[in-house]
Every structure is written in C-alpha cells, then in structure tokens.
Amino acid sequence: MTSADKPTMIEFKDVHKYYGDYHALRGINGKIRAGEFFSLLGPSGCGKTTLLRTIAGFEDISSGAVLIDGKSMANVPANVRPTNMVFQSYAIFPHMSVAENVGFGLRRDPRSKAEKAKAVEEALEMVGLKGYGARAAHALSGGQRQRVALARALILKPKVLLLDEPLSALDKKMREHMQVELIKLQRQVGITFILVTHDQEEALVMSDRIAVMFEGEIAQLADPETLYRRPNSKKVADFIGTMNFIPCEIVSEAGEHVTVDAKGLGRVDLDIGQAPPARGEAPVVGLRPETLTLLYPGQTATERATEGVIDEVIYFGDMTYYDVYLGGTDVEVRLSMRNVPGRPVLDVGTKVQVAWSPSALVLFR
Amino acid sequence: MAQSSSSEAKAGWLLVSPPAIYAVLLLAAPLATVLVYSVLTGEKGAVSLPFTLENYQELFTKPIYRVLMGRSLMISFLVTLATVLLAYPIAYYVSFYVKPSKKALWLFLITIPFWTSYIIRVSLWRTILGYDGIVDSVVMGLGLSDTQLNILSNGVASIIITLAHAYAPFAVLPIFVSLEKVDRSLLEAGQDLGESRWMTFLRVTLPLSLPGVIAAVLIVFIPTVGDYVTPELIGGGKTPMIANLMETQMLKQRDQAMGSAIAVAAMTIVAVISLIFVLLNRRFLGARK
C-alpha cells in the first residue's frame, strides 16, 4: 500500500474507557495515516464503535490520549473537532429538506447564501443526488439517506470522516454498490475515512488498513492481504474468512525454520514468517480453503498432496465447497474449487487427492 | 378484501355508536340549543320568538363584553405562556436526564396535584397569596418588603398563578411525548456538524418538539378562556372573566338568550384561535411523518 509514507492523522495512546466496572477499551495504541481508508473491524461489543466515538468526541476516555493531526483532543468538544460522522441511523433531520440537511453545518460559514447553495448542490452532485435538494428528507429511501448523510459531512471538508456501520441497513446489492462508491469517493476527496464494521468482507474490500478488535483491544492492525494471509492469531484467522485448523506438533525450531508434524499432512518445513509469536496455545496449522486444491484425473501436485475422502459437497454456482476427511484421520478440511467447464462436481464418498503448498500454512501456537 | 373492509366498517360503526349517540345527545343538541337561543329574545328565564340579532348587536356595542372577553383572552394567553414555559423544562428534564427506568415514576409524580380537588387547591392559593399569607410572611420575614404584598388583591396576577399551576401537568405530558420521539442521534449529528448544545437545541430539538408544544398550548388555552371557578374563588368575583358574565346573564339576569349569544361569541373566538394553532401543528407534523 502506498500510504505507508503518509503522515499520521490520528494517534491512540494507551486509550482506556470504563463504563462503571465495564472495561470497554483496554489500552488502544495505534496510528491512522492521513488519506487512508481505515477500518475498525470486530464482533459486536468489541469496542469498535466506542473507539470511533472517542474520535468524534461523543465519548470521554478514562485515560490515555486521542490525537488528531498531532493535537490532543482532551477537553475538545465534538462540535469543534475536525471530524464529521455518518451515523448508523444516518441521523437525517426529519424537519428539513435535503438541501437544508446538507447545508446544516454551513450556518457560520462566511460565504454568501448563493455560494453556500452552490456548495450544497455540488455536494449533492458528488454523492449522485443532483437535483434532490428541495425534497423532504423523510421521503428518501435508505440509500438516499445515506448519501445525504455523506454529503452533509463531506461539505464541511473534515480532516477525518467517521462512518459508523453505514452500510448495515442496506440490502446486499445496494451494499456492494455503495462499497465501491465509497472507495471511489474516498479517492476523489482524499480525506481520511474511518469505517466501523462487523462485516469482514466489507472491511477487506474497502480498506487500506484494518484494525481487528476483540474485547476492547486491537488484536491485529494490518493491510487486508496480511490480515488474510498472515493473521497473527487463531482468533483473527477465524474471524477473517474461513480457515482450516489442523492439530500439529512442533518437531524442531531453529533460526528461520520451524518444522511441524501436522495431522494428515505430515512433516512440513515452515519459514519463521509463517509462525506469529507464540501465545501458549495448543499448536495448530491454518490453511485457507482456496489454498487447497482437488486433483482431477491426469493432474499432479506441484508441491505436496494428501489423500482424502469427500464428506460433504456444497454447491454455490460459481464455486463448490468440499469438506474432505484427510486420509486415515478424523481431520476434516474445507476447500473451495472454482466451477469451470470440464471439471465436474464430485460426489460424496469419492476418494481424492488434495494438493497444497507449505508456503500457504500459518502456524498458531 | 372488499367484504372484509365492509365488515370492518360495520364493526367500526358498532364500536363508535355509543359514544357517538352520547356526543349527539349531550354535546351537539345543547350546542344547537345555545345557537338557537342566541337569536331569540330572553326574559325572566324564558325565550321567545321572533328571531333577532339584537343580542349580538348588544354584544358588539356595549363595552363590558369586549372588556371581559379581552381580559379572558389575555389571562388565558398569559396562563398558556407561563404554563408552557414552565412545562417545557420539566418535560425536557424528564425526557433527557431521567433514567429510562425512572421516567414512569416522574410522570406519576407530576400528576400529584390532581390528587387534590381543584377547589381545595384554589383555596390553598388564597392562603399562600393572600394578605399576611405565606408569600407575605416569607417576603417580610426576609426583610425584602416592609408591607404586605397581598398578591391576592391583584385579581389577574393571582388568577394566572393559580391556573398556570393547575394546568402545568397537562402541558408537561404532550411536550414530554414529543421530546421522547426525538432521535437522540440527531442531537449528536447537530453537534458533529459544528453546533453547540444550545444551537442544536434551537435548530433540532425545539422544532421537532413543536407539535407537542402546540398540543400543550391548545390543551391549556381552550379551557382557561372559559374558566369560571378560579375568578370566582380567587378574584372574589371582582375580576370576572367571560364565563362569569355568562353565568350572570343566564342565572342571575335570567336572560338565557343573551347568555347564549356570549357563549356563541366566545366559542367562535376560541375556535378561530385554535384553528390557527392546528394549522401550525399540521405544518410541523407534515414535515415529520
């Protein structure tokens, strides 16, 4: 990603937040770069929305510091922070027209009325709602409300745009459409976007970098590819997409190399980069379904192959998922195959060869 | 579909017919009687033909009617103003600052004044406001004044105080309900978009709660214009309002036709003012949906 050399826009320094006895944020550290599309990803109750609200100024922090563009936000109220938010409910003012909603934050703007009206029209055009200004806000659809909320925030040219699960209320088609639109919009305006979502797919699609949060802590902060291919814990691996976990024993560990004996796979040599720091858990190796391949007659494995029996077939149209027992074990792995012409969907009970590559493995221990 | 809606309509008529009959007999019929009486000639407790507009002529020419109608409107206007201004902060506090689990208790407490009969409450106000009453004792005890204030001697002021206290709970409830409906994220949005809490209140909360305010205005204004008990008991009959004049005409002068004409005129004025508020309300309700 090219944003690596960009300056820091937001910095968390050991941020803690208590609600009474409940410890909602447990020492958040991290930096969000200027112009970055950043996501806070995690299950509900992990503190991601709380963290977003500490940036906006709607939540006080119990200790630590939140810095925006190098300035501490302690005692800076929400209305003077250089951030704007798109609320989960969109929070469109129901007693105002679309134009009045979009122009809400321009009251103290010194520009003339005509110039402000022009700015509102431009903001509406940017989100694809040109000519909607005179409409009553309550007559809009969900997708349109969201666009109004976006225009209303972006017209103020904030340093940071905060998006609190903005797509969760939309249907699947609309959501996918808006994901692409948001990415385009972010590139166009160049503002730092911070998105809160519980949808890992959404985070992977949209973000330059993602912070995965569990129970008030950031478990991993990385770009989508690293997060997907090299998760730093079993928990992160399990939350992002699907991963097969296969019990293993660590045979030897020396310098840059780790050798494991995985059930059903046999002895595998791993690079130290495939083994994130130990956590004292029972060792397992992880494999994504798409890194496993069924060998059809006439095909040979380029690296390693293991025998197995198909236990379950799940047909998805473009893809087929197979659950396969690895030869002579009770280890079941899921693998995905693209359905292409000349490659029939196999039946349950078929004996198959499963090809895999040692470099796709991740070791959790 | 058509069949079910027609049977639904039948069920609906069945449900509304008892109150509808009740309303016709006890509201519409007396109202029609008053309308007819107002254009007859009244004398010694009886009315007689022919139809005449003399009563209305007298109503518009004799200053006493205008003075009392004006006083009634002014008193209810001030009572409404005082009540809504007092009720809004209470409703706001209960809606925004009281824990959800305690709100029902607060609303219950607000109804406490209703536990006592209105007559007793009015009498208590006499004790509080009267010569050497509680207000006077406190003011003189603190050395704020050397002489008795005797607020009770000021009929208009004491009527307003008494009525505002009596109607405050009626005003709190509709305002509270409209404030409860305000989506709290709108207030955060207001601040997020650069407005202070106070400006957010003015630009978001207040306009969104106006339907409740207008409902409160109607609930207080309409009955207070025709209030009869308070001026009698608090003003000692020295500060009569329009309803007291109706009573005098109807029962003491035994001129039911003139009394009816006053009633019709007062009703018309109140109806016109109320309609203006209803139209205002519709404008705001229309914008909310």
List the helices and strands and how they pair.
The complex is a heterodimer of chains A (365) and B (289).
Chain A: E1 8-19, E2 22-33, E3 37-41, H1 48-56, E4 63-68, E5 71-72, E6 83-86, H2 98-102, H3 113-126, H4 142-154, E7 160-164, H5 172-189, E8 192-197, H6 200-206, E9 209-214, E10 217-222, H7 224-229, H8 234-239, E11 244-254, E12 257-262, E13 266-271, E14 284-287, E15 293-295, E16 304-315, E17 319-326, E18 332-338, E19 351-356, E20 362-364
Parallel strand pairs in A: 3-8, 3-9, 6-7, 7-8
Antiparallel strand pairs in A: 1-2, 1-4, 4-5, 9-10, 11-12, 11-14, 12-13, 14-20, 15-19, 16-17, 16-19, 17-18
Chain B: H1 2-37, E1 41-43, E2 46-48, H2 54-61, H3 63-96, H4 100-110, H5 118-129, H6 134-141, H7 155-180, H8 184-192, H9 197-225, H10 229-233, H11 242-252, H12 256-288
Antiparallel strand pairs in B: 1-2
Commentary on this structure:
The complex is a heterodimer of chains A (365) and B (289). Chain A has eight helices and 20 strands. Chain A has 365 residues and is α+β, with helices and mostly antiparallel strands. In chain A, the strands form four sheets. In chain A, strands 6-7-8-3-9-10 form a six-stranded mixed beta sheet, sandwiched between helices. With 289 residues, chain B is mostly helical. Chain B has a single domain, classed as MetI-like fold. The chains are: A alpha+beta (365), B mainly alpha (289). The A-B interface holds A 56-58, 77-80, 83-85, 87-89, 91, 93-96, 104-105, 107-108, 136, 138, 152-153, 156 and B 183, 185-186, 188-196, 199, 203-204, 207-208, 284, 287-289.
